[in-house]
TrEMBL record:
Alphabetized InterPro entries for the sequence: 3_dmu_93_MTrfase, Glyas_Bleomycin-R_OHBP_Dase, PhnB-like
Name the record gives this protein: VOC family protein
Pfam families, sorted: 3-dmu-9_3-mt (PF06983)
Annotated PhnB-like domain residues: 6-120
Highest taxon of the lineage: Bacteria
Matches recorded under CDD domains: PhnB_like
PANTHER family, alphabetized: PHNB-LIKE DOMAIN-CONTAINING PROTEIN, PROTEIN YJDN-RELATED
Length: 168
């Protein structure tokens, strides 16, 4: 049996084209795919986008301009971006939180379209899985106090526990 792909579908009020252009400008190796426009006599203004697709770093998203009744996103659904290093964290954090976005704790933010993102450095996952439970707890505790996650601060928190244990 061939696996059937699962593709997220996002419901916008009327900002699909703007959102697709924005997201594809933020993520490398991304593109806007086909956009279906309303025809003359359709329910929407002729020529405006009704539905479409865009691809962000290999993941395809479908989206519709479905109107205001169900538009709007909730933090119970978010997209997590695992970043290679602090520079990548900073890039996505700044780009996605700009122009009306809102930052949250623990590496979460909402972009200007209301979509929630988790911007997390790979190093956090490594530290949280440290075989020394005290180091893992210290890194996790530090992350819980952060808004934008800072790798150096995670490492400092883990190292402080490690050095105080070896000094004792």
């Amino acid at each position: 049996m061939t696996p059937t792909p699962i593709t997220p579908c996002l419901w916008f009020d009327d900002q699909l084209e703007e959102a697709a252009a924005f997201y594809t400008s933020v993520f490398p190796d991304s593109s806007v795919g086909h956009l279906t426009r309303y025809p003359e006599g359709g329910p929407g203004a002729p020529g405006t986008v009704m539905a479409g697709e865009f691809t962000l770093r290999g993941t395809t998203f479908r989206a519709i301009n479905g109107g205001p009744e169900l538009a709007g996103f909730h933090e119970s659904v978010s997209f997590s971006v695992t970043c290679a290093d602090q520079a990548e964290v900073d890039h996505y954090w700044e780009a996605l939180s700009a122009d009306g976005g809102e930052t949250r704790v623990c590496g979460w933010l909402r972009d200007r379209f209301g979509l929630s993102w988790q911007i997390v450095p790979r190093r956090f996952f490594e530290l949280a899985a440290d075989p020394d439970p005290a180091r893992a707890a210290a890194a996790t505790g530090a992350m819980l106090q952060m808004t934008r996650i800072v790798v150096a601060d995670l490492e400092s928190a883990a190292d402080e526990v490690g050095s105080s244990r070896s000094a004792g």
